[in-house]
Write a structure and sequence with these properties.
alpha/beta; seven-stranded parallel β-sheet; 12 helices; 13 strands; 40% helix; globular; binds 1,4-dihydronicotinamide adenine dinucleotide
Amino acid sequence: MVIKPMIRNNICMNAHPLGCFKDVEDQIALVSKHGRWKGPKRALIIGSSTGYGLASRIALAFGAGADSIGVSYEKEASEKKPGTMGWYNVESFNQLAKKAGLKSENINADAFSDETRMQVIERIKALLGTVDVVVYSLASPVRTDPATGIQYRSVLKPIGQTYSAKTFNTSTHEVSIASIDPITSQEEIDNTVKVMGGEDWILWIKALLAAGVLAPNAVTVAYSYIGPEVTHPVYLNGTIGKAKAHLEASVKDIDQLLAPIGGKSWVSENKGLVTRASAVIPVVPLYFALLYKVMKEKGTHENCIQQMDRLYRVKLYGKGNGTSGIVTDSEGRIRMDDWELDPAVQVEVAKRWDLVNTENVAQLADIEGTNQDFLTIHGFGRADVDYDEEINTLFPKVK
Ligand code: NAI
């Protein structure tokens, strides 16, 4: 089959198997170039197929030499239809990890369900015995509560008043004003917290502890985002921000659970980057394009794999076993957004934000860079792939 990108409303509907394979190879090459470091030997990655979760897995596997089990929810490829980007990433990772002598398995199932937790625990027992690190990197619009069977849907809305801000169409490159209506009920906040808050993270840690598959001093890390003032009404102070506040507050509960085994939980505030999840947040694509330009000019821009390589290699395991001696902010959070929220970067982005319009967006913002990232994560836009060539949709299925 010949596969070309099909993009609608900032969503890419398909993925290229070979392009995804090469993207995983590139991420592995970056980590390998920085050399091996002493760290966890067995990892569980929940949300392992794309974005920050995939990058975490690569950083741990090819940086610390960790065997790993991943959990993700992706559409499988068939002979007639391509799978999702995450499906190809996982297949590629498994193949390349095994080639490098690392144990690697992935479970393609709903991570919010108790059945999946049980399945993962069985595989940990069989393949790894215990795990030293659990990365929690899910981004999902829906979650079914395993206790009640009720399905909750998250919303991305401001709280209190309508939010209007500049936005830009990634296809036409037109800058316009987007308005997002505020929530109409407390239920919308509660539902978003149910989906993207810390409840499920806690359930995972409880289940892993109860099954005895967490190693002494096990560490767990979840990801959050703060972002610039311009997105605060729709992100930090909006429904998703409430969910992230709940996730961050869960560290206290998880630390108590982990205390008997000497373990520790962390939230890392990551940098804003183009991923499947972030591409659909209104206003964010324009902010990212301005941010990329300013950070590239300053030489501080990082992509997902660079962020995760620095997080695990330097910040978490640089000086110890990931449980102590970690530099955090006053609220105990690891700040991987340190360079994004550098005042000099934010002042310049804010200046450009005020000036930007359809005519000057190409000069002020890194449209090319953000577009390229968007294509790359779906396996497209690569010079080393011939997109006119027939490709087996099952590639690179591990035999
Ligand atoms: P992503 O969309 O690239 O990855 C989400 C992962 O979750 C995928 O592996 C997907 O298969 C998995 N997933 C979703 N629903 C699932 C389910 N029901 N069962 C099993 N797996 C499921 O998203 P991204 O951007 O990497 O986000 C990961 C975390 O990082 C999120 O918590 C997000 O809020 C956070 N973050 C993202 C930032 C960004 O700019 N992209 C910035 C800071 C934090």
